[in-house]
Specification:
single chain, mainly alpha, elongated
Length: 112
């Protein structure tokens, strides 16, 4: 494997955070930076991949396929939604009222 050297100039505070993070991970600083760069490159390539795939997508065909999804298939054991999904804040209950009162909602909303 061919290796390259590259002089990297970092702000002292960022360098110190990198050093601490590498130490916590139990790896050399050089290895930590290599992995971080590899993760970033992977994320960028993944974004490009999905953008390219999305550009080739046929929306009408996708919607046609989704309309067929599940037709003719009866629900099977295990298809149920988890119990905690039954009530979600802000959703209308069967009686037509919000499941969270407006007064409690106001307390949660930040006015920053």
């Amino acid at each position: 494997m061919k290796r390259s050297n590259f002089a990297l100039r970092l702000q002292p505070s960022l360098f110190e955070e990198l050093r601490k993070s590498a130490e916590l991970e139990g790896v050399a600083l050089n290895q930590f930076i290599n992995v971080a760069v590899a993760e970033k490159v992977s994320a960028l390539r993944t974004e490009d991949f999905f953008r390219e795939r999305g550009g080739r997508a046929n929306r009408a065909e996708t919607l046609r396929i989704l309309q067929r999804a599940g037709k003719g298939n009866i629900p099977r054991e295990g298809d149920e939604l988890p119990a905690q999904w039954g009530k979600k804040p802000g959703r209308k209950a069967a009686n037509g009222r919000d499941s969270v009162s407006k007064s409690s909602h106001k307390r949660r909303v930040s006015t920053k």
